[in-house]
Write the structure tokens for this entry.
Amino acid sequence: QVQLLESGGGSVQAGGSLRLSCTTSEYDRYCMAWFRQTSGKAREGVATINALGGSPVYASSVKGRFTISLDNAKNTLYLQMNSLKPEDTAMYYCAADPLARRGCTLDMNDYNYWGQGTQVTVSS
């Protein structure tokens, strides 16, 4: 059973930065991803990365502003968020796909394990 625990959310003004962290019990061969969700909307894929290597994939809405990365020594997934906008306000979730049948995607249906979420609020 993969366990995921997010941290690092908070409130920031537009244009500011935050870094989210997700500690995990294991991910050495998984796809790891960040999703976000606001009330009344479907969960949206933000970024994904393959623990075995390869280029990360980003949603168009965050490309150039967000960076996903892994620290293998710390078993931690990060999401560096720069130039934040009010529309980035959401609950952010870390997710793991241990099978990667379709490669690393931004489709929430491909992910089996989820963290509890961390809130990010960006004010204008």
Summary: The chain has a mean pLDDT of 93. The chain is about 0% helix and 50% strand.
